[in-house]
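@channel sequence for tomorrow's demo:
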Amino acid sequence: MTMKDKVQQTVGSARSKLGAATGNRRLEASGRMQRRRAQVAEVAHDLRSKARGLVRDAQVRRRGDRGPDPL
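structure tokens (generated this afternoon):
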């Protein structure tokens, strides 16, 4: 999760609420889209981080099976 994604979610939510309050459907829809896009980016970032951690764990386990490196 990045700060940029959180900011975009907040801005999108505010735009959507402002559009709803003023009756501006286009602003409301673009705000919803901005918020959802940021949510998807956040989930993708979290998945990438999780995958990197799993790969690192697998590499460490694999190295552990071989024993210590020769000098």
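heads up for whoever presents: The CA atoms of residues 18 and 51 lie 38 Å apart.
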